[in-house]
Design goal:
CATH class of the largest domain: Alpha Beta
Mean pLDDT: 84
Strand content: 15-25%
Low-confidence stretches: 1-21
Distance between the termini: 27 Å
Bound molecules: nicotinamide-adenine-dinucleotide
Helix content: 25-40%
CATH superfamily of the largest domain: NAD(P)-binding Rossmann-like Domain
Shape: elongated
Number of helices: 8
């Protein structure tokens, strides 16, 4: 079964641009989307290291998805895979980015210019995948106006205006749990539909808004489950 088999295609003539015969899927199943994102993570790194091809076995060893599943998921991208040679890294990166709709540039607003916020702002973790931190906010008047890399810390009162001016699509919360819900509410009111939450706060948002909560300990519990079973 390929990605195409698991999804509902767009109407005729609406194509992904890379191959006129390949329709862009409307909706991926959660499992496929999660696996494609993991492949993309490995492929992006491989591309950065100048690797031209990658085999399903290599992808498997880095993603812990078995290679038969990988071949099935990627069978829709026939022209990128050659027996004995593997997949063309460049081609597969652009194809998966189109399918996950992550092609192009997406602007992030970061909340919290503390330890984590500063580390995120100065690293490539988001930039490697087409996300750019274009604004950083903090509630502490001592931090507002100071520099974090090329950015100046802004006052949270300016959120709605900055979201509009900077075309922000993602809000990243690197603030104490006690501050997260109020900021999430402000982001929702400003029209932001994706929130990446580093705090442990259980955020309440309307159904059209997606919250992803990053929790290393919970990821470890998941790994532990597979280790123990
Ligand atoms: N999930 C992870 O991997 C991970 C890792 C480290 C920290 N964290 C979490 O990230 C958060 C930040 O951690 P830290 O170590 O950077 O803390 P920190 O105290 O160094 O920084 C927090 C910053 O948030 C600012 N802040 C407080 N209220 C705010 C508001 N309403 N609006 C904007 N800014 C506000 C503070 O002034 C401070 O600058 C915490 O919730 C922590 O538990 C998560």
């Amino acid at each position: 079964m390929s990605v195409g088999d698991l999804t509902k295609p767009h109407g005729a003539g609406d194509t992904n641009g890379a191959d006129d015969t390949e329709p862009v899927p409307d909706r991926l199943s959660l499992g496929v989307a999660a696996r494609l994102a993991r492949y993309l993570q490995v492929l992006t790194k491989a591309k950065k290291e100048g690797k031209e091809t990658i085999s399903s076995q290599e992808l498997s060893s880095f993603t812990q998805v078995n290679s038969t599943q990988i071949r099935r998921d990627l069978s829709g991208f026939g022209k990128f895979g050659k027996r004995g040679v593997g997949y063309n890294v460049d081609g597969l990166v652009s194809q998966i980015r189109k399918i996950l709709r992550t092609a192009g540039q997406h602007n992030i607003a970061l909340f919290g210019a503390g330890h984590l916020g500063r580390a995120i702002a100065s690293s490539d973790v988001f930039a490697d995948h087409g996300f750019r931190v274009v604004a950083i906010f903090d509630a502490d008047p001592e931090k507002v106006g100071t520099s974090v890399g090329a950015l100046q810390v802004r006052d949270v009162a300016t959120v709605p205006q900055v979201v509009e001016d900077e075309d922000i699509v993602v809000g990243v919360l690197a603030v104490p749990s006690s501050a997260a819900q109020t900021l999430a509410d402000q982001l929702v009111l400003s029209g932001v539909k994706i929130i990446f939450n580093y705090s442990e706060s259980l955020l309440r948002v309307p159904p059209e808004v997606t919250v992803h909560t990053s929790s290393p300990a919970v990821d470890l519990l998941y790994a532990l489950y597979f280790y123990l079973t």
